[in-house]
Amino acid sequence: MTELKGARARRGLTHLVLLAIGFAYVYPFLWAVGSSLKTKIDFLDGGLGLLPSRPVWENYAQAWREASFGTYFVNTLVISVTTVAFTLLFTAMAGYALARHTFPGKKIILGVILATYLLPHGYTIVPIYDLINSLGLLNTLTSVILAQVGGGLVFGTFMFMAYFSTLPRELEEAARVDGAGFNTLFFRVMLPVSKPMMATLGLFTFISSWNNFFLPLVFTLGRPELRTVGVGLYAFTNQTTTDWTLLCAGAVISLAPIVVVFVVAQRYIVEAIAGAVKA
Amino acid sequence: MSEPRIPSVSRRGFLSGAAGLGGLALLAACGGSGGSSAGGKGTITHWDKWTTQQSWVKKEMERFQKATGIQVNRTLQASGNLEDLLNLAARGDNLPDVFMVARDRLDEHIKQGHLLPLNKYATADWQKTFPAHSFVNGVNAADGKIYSAPFTGFGPELQLYVNNKVFKDAGLVDSGGQVLLPKTWDEVTRAAEQITRKGNGSVHGIGFGNSAFPIINWWIKPFLAGSGNPVSVPPSVPDGLDLRTGKFTRYTDRTYTDFLTLFLEWKNKGYIMPNSLSVDDEIARQQFARGKFGMTVGGVWNQPGWTELGFTDFSTVSMVTPDGQQKSSYYHGAGSVMLALSADSKRPDEAWEWFKWWHGKDAATRFVQDLKGDISIHPEANDPGKIDLAPFKQYVEAAKLVIPGPQPSLRNPATIHVVPDQAKPTFDDFCTGVYTGQIKDVPGGLRTLAEDLEGKFEDALKKAKDKGHKVSRDDYVFADWDLTKPYKWDIPQYLGA
Amino acid sequence: MSTTRLARTGGPRPAAAAGRGRSLWRTVRASGWSYAYLAPFVVLTAAFVVYPIFASLGYTFYDWDGIGEPSDFVGLANFKQVATDGYFWRALGNSALYTLVLVPVQLVLALVLALVLNNPRLRGSTFYRALYFLPAITSIAIVGIVLKLMLANFGDAVSKPFLKLGLTDEPLQFLGSPHLSMWTVIAIGIWNTLGYNMIYFLAGLQTIPKDQYEAAQIDGAGRFAQFVHVTIPGLRNVGLVIVFLAIVGSLQVFDLVMVLTGGGPFYSSDVITTYIYREAFGQVGTGVAVEPHIGLASAASFLFGLLLLVVTSGQMLAIRRLRARKEGK
Question: What is the CATH classification number for the domain harbouring A88?
Fold first, then answer.
């Protein structure tokens, strides 16, 4: 009895601590949400206060209009989803080959991965821009996807490689005895157990693709209607003024999809526990 | 930190100085007007970076379309990076028909063949709708070919702003209840002291926001412009150089040490809002509007942000002299740039129509009087009598303080190829260092700064010479310059006329 | 139990001796699928990462403003200028400080958080995970604006009691004081990206088979002993990756410093990336247009990359030697 009580108390305490720290932790975010509903005056006088004196829902409508979110949302969704899909596929494949097989030239590839990860990327936009231009892809969503996928593969491959190399060898061996080939091993055995990594990497890729504004901006210079949410957010700032309340509203709008993706993806991470061990 | 590398190209790769977004330095741009791009007949594309002025831009686009039937498809590139985007667009043959250019990039654009020479359109008659010396080789023209035109006029770039209510609350009024605007260093000190004392810790005499970018150096302009040290000079004059002698004595002149010492005194006596180093300019401006301090320094761009939120009870002081005597002034150069046309434009005629409209007198009048954006190059547009906002009127009237100054590039256009590197630390950073106490020896530091600048100038001069440009240090000496009189330029009033 | 042993030893070493004795060509042909699987990665990375890096390496030998093509060849002058610049080394020092403080603190916090939230009996762990991950998904630009505003207000609020007691004669300036600015940036850095490492650790914890814990329990191991003998070894692989990423990421921190302090006041929080940025484009936001120095900035960036490469290679060598020693025992 007393033991049960103690456990319950301890659990309550855990919740209390987690909630208190968590509240402080996301306070800036709550403050931004509160600010998105404030009038400008309210915002400036409100100090650290969370609640608007009278919520101004109109901020959201205005932010939506001014940042052209209507068009931009669709563009961003197309770009982000495609980027995630290709990044996951290519990095899982490369990570699998590197982690579970030997072949001549492997060391070179590993060295290049390390070097490119460390070398700062410097002023690389001009060569990349020229490359996209010579492929005739300027002013298309494809160019944005291509450049984003291309730029993110090193990181993802590195992660998948690390993940696959922690999996037990017998996982493959059993299947191999059954006559499974390279493809079957990858798609039927390895991919299914890599859900935690896919969810993690997919989430991170989605976040950075969703928030990216530079590549979408420069590759669609000639067709502004192809811009993304990340670019649209800059409608509220310029060199001398910022429209704080609208910016906060715009930020909340642009964050919402990521939060949804997070909640979905992180559930997979949890569910995959069983998968990773049982399989 | 440990996120995927997709944005790394964007983050460090290609960045340029945007202060927007609280000093966010990333390349930023913003949602444009949408609609279809390079489109049907009578549609031209246009890029600019004006956000606060965009109500004027949009109205002019409508008027223009009604008058000519030409539709302007505008994209707002809201950041300091329009120049970099233009460069990329040029690589991909994506330049818009009309775009804003930066003065210091114009010669490079001309060299790369990006710009359309306007001489076919820019006739002598058209040029004469502008004041004399508006089109100048080395500024908006090269080898007699015109590429751009001036738009804004010449106002005192930075002013001391006074919050009238704070002054009144501190009793800084004359017998008639009018706010006593400080005109000398002493008067500023006294006003700051009185406001701080009466403010009891919640209101300070002086405030600013140094966090997003160095701003203490802004105070130099209104406080030293009349000191006899030619501080506010035309663009393209090397930093720290005194054009009367061609020597780097502007910073070592005692006016700088005196002012920085005074500034430190204000800080040490508690006249300055304590978190002035923690907040950025934008926040500080709002705190000024809410009466947290009585005086700040800023540009004319501060005004729309204040009036929009209903704060109009402020005054502008364009010059604060050390002792009440004006020994020098603000100086401007000849000509300036605004729009340019793409050399690849498929509709150069329509693009020119828009260019002409934008730079014309009617649009300028609406820019000054309705938008209160700035002073126009067209004197007719700047009638103070037609301006209904007192502080903006004060600003427009102060334009008489800005007089022509000598400009090396007018005497020898080849000097535009002399581009010295920045000092390290720059004077702007130096001011912050003095204020935080990281730099103790002010006169010594200023001496080092002057030496540094001199060395960088010599290097740049040598580099230009090595490339075959005929330049020399003598191009930078104007021994005949009288600081109190408009300098007479020895160039034709109009180009090729 | 056999699963466990296999999991541990079967780690990163793939079928090794397979190719011995055959000719290279036959090995290559036998590895056809491996190459096919690597092809998209290799092609795209070569095009969008490797080629641009080499192309921009070329800029380091030029004095170039970024317009048109570089033409002013200056040899190694850019490298020399960077290497002899005191501000470069000062910025490097700050980057090192940022990394040395942030990485251990953040990793310990992230691990603790992951362990707490990994408890399947803890209700609402999904909610908590989202909560603690929130700062990581918010764009840095927004984070910067919000935190700056809050700190300015917060500074006053926190300082009030101290002021009244006379312990300090000025409100605390978290971002405005040259003594505090770097520490404030570090603290915010820890806060901002903690969520990422929490997720990595959570993913890592899931690769540890449950039966290892059960076996340890049967052996009578307590919670702490389980942590030391099962959790820590189980996290070793993913842990190394996290540490590596955290170090590289911290050394390259940019946006956060830029939006919070821009490296100031007076270089007190200047890190290597803000230094590079300023070299390339001049002081942010002064409105003074500066001739960009793409060549110089690229040189600084490569010099930094080389230093990083040396440090990391050293790190990896050390790890390898450590492992070898352990296995030799």
Answer: 1.10.3720.10
Q: Which two tokens stand for residue C190?
A: 């820890």
- Residue A160 and residue A89 share a domain: yes
Contact criterion met (CB below 8 Å) for C51 and A152: no
| A16 and A73 together in one domain | no
> Who contacts C255 (Cβ-Cβ below 8 Å, separation ≥6)?
B11, B24, B26, C140, C141, C144
Q: How far is CA A3 from CA A10, A14, A168, C123, C218, in A?
A: 10, 16, 39, 19, 21
Domain that holds residue A206: 65-278
Q: Do C68 and B111 touch (CB under 8 A)?
A: yes
User: Distance between CA C74 and CA C146 in Å, rounded?
Assistant: 44
Question: B335 CA to chain C: closest CA distance, Å?
Answer: 18
- Count interface pairs B-C at CB distance under 8 A: 181
Measured CA to CA, the distance from residue C300 to residue C84 in angstroms comes to 11
Q: How far is C119 from chain B (nearest CA, A)?
A: 24
For the ranges A202-206, B11-15, B399-403, C51-55, the lowest mean pLDDT is seen at B11-15
Give the neighbours of chain B: at least 3 Cβ pairs within 8 Å.
A, C
* Lowest pLDDT segment from B72-86, B227-241, B291-305: B72-86
pLDDT band at C27 (very low <50, low <70, confident <90, very high): confident
Which candidate from B1, B214, B422 shows the least CB-CB separation from C250? B1
Query: Which domains does chain C possess?
Result: 84-328 (1.10.3720.10)
Report residue A99 CA to chain centroid gap.
Answer: 24
pLDDT at B27 > cutoff 50 = no
Q: Is residue A47 assigned to a domain? A: no
The token pair that represents B243 in the structure block: 């054009």
- The count of domains in chain A is 2
**Torsion sign across C-alpha atoms C59, C65, C71, C74:** negative
Contact C143 A28 (CB under 8 A): yes
Same domain, A94 and A226: yes
Closest CA to B88 of A110, A133, C247: A133
Q: Is B297 helix (H, G, I), strand (E, B) or coil?
A: strand
Mean per-residue pLDDT over chain A, rounded: 84
Looking at residues B366-395, what average pLDDT do you find?
A: 92
Domains annotated on chain B, with CATH: 41-153+334-391 (3.40.190.10), 155-331+405-497 (3.40.190.10)
| Assigned domain for A232 exists | yes
Question: Same domain for A28 and A141?
Answer: no
List the chains bordering chain C where 3 or more Cβ pairs fall under 8 Å: A, B
Render pLDDT for C233-281 as a digit per residue (tens, 0 to 9).
888 877 887 888 898 889 888 888 988 888 889 999 999 988 888 877 6
CA nearest C201: which of C148, C146, C238?
Answer: C238
pLDDT for A214-269, tens place per residue?
888 889 888 888 988 888 887 777 666 778 888 889 888 988 888 888 888 877 76
pLDDT tens-digit profile of A13-58?
Answer: 888 999 999 998 888 888 888 989 988 888 877 777 788 888 889 9
